[in-house]
Amino acid sequence: MPAPVFRTLEGHAPYEETVTAMAAHAAAIRTGSAGEEVWLLEHHSVLTGGTSSKPADLVNPGGIPVHQTGRGGQWTWHGPGQRVAYVMLDLQRRNPDVRAYVHALEGWIIDTLGSFGIDGQRRDGHPGIWVDGEGRMDKVAAIGVRISRWVTWHGIAVNLDPAMDGFEAIIPCGVRDGGVTSLRRLGLNIDMATLDAALTESFAAHFPEPDDG
């Protein structure tokens, strides 16, 4: 099977329609009628609640659309300036281990940020990638996955330069002792294409092609 195809979706992708298309592609991977893909995109402003989301953590959505979705995790915000990567891989063919998959996603983000001199870190008990803030840990990238019969979908979100007020509508990922930041707030002045190139370059080290022989 060839390496996963990276596709960049232009514009601001509508959330529900994109998730529906992603589910269909994941199903096609399971039947062998489609290959593995990674979709790079930005959404319209939207709040999404994962399978562990709590109503009390949806603080003040205002006019932002709200969607319950089937990925793991709690509340997060997606919108312009944030790079979402939806990762659709066949773990049955690769490594059917959920923890190893999430660890690989974390490593992928950490290496991508490291290529720009940013020290991304794991934080025990709190998914996503974090950086040292002013006396606290701030999240710069979120992870929320779904695995259906060992095919992955949903994925990661890296805050490049979004309007951060979307996060004020929620308790992001249920974490009350940390904040949310962006690469721009960390002093990194790059565009989305540069971030995409780094994500693409770092991917194979964490998701090497399996030996099907």
CATH-scheme architecture: 2-Layer Sandwich
Category by helix and strand content: alpha/beta
* Helix proportion range: 10-25%
Can you say what the CATH homologous superfamily is?
Bira Bifunctional Protein, Domain 2
Summed up, the helix count is: 3
CATH topology: BirA Bifunctional Protein, domain 2
Average pLDDT confidence is 93
What's the alpha carbon Rg, rounded to whole Å? 16 Å
| Inertia-based shape | globular
Q: Which sequence of SSEs, written as H and E, runs from N to C?
A: EHEEEEEHEEEEEH
What does it look like?
The strands form 2 sheets. Strands 1, 2, 6, 7, 8, 9, 10 and 11 form an 8-stranded mixed sheet that branches. The chain has a single domain, classed as Bira Bifunctional Protein, Domain 2 (BirA Bifunctional Protein, domain 2, 2-Layer Sandwich). The protein contains 3 helices and 11 strands; from the N terminus they run βαβββββαβββββα. The chain is an alpha/beta fold and 213 residues long. Helix content is 23%, strand content 32%.
Write the layout of secondary structure elements.
Blueprint: E1 5-13, H1 15-31, E2 37-43, E3 46-49, E4 66-68, E5 75-78, E6 82-88, H2 98-114, E7 121-123, E8 126-132, E9 137-148, E10 151-159, E11 178-180, H3 192-206
Parallel strand pairs: 1-2, 3-4, 9-11
Antiparallel strand pairs: 2-6, 3-5, 6-10, 7-8, 8-9, 9-10
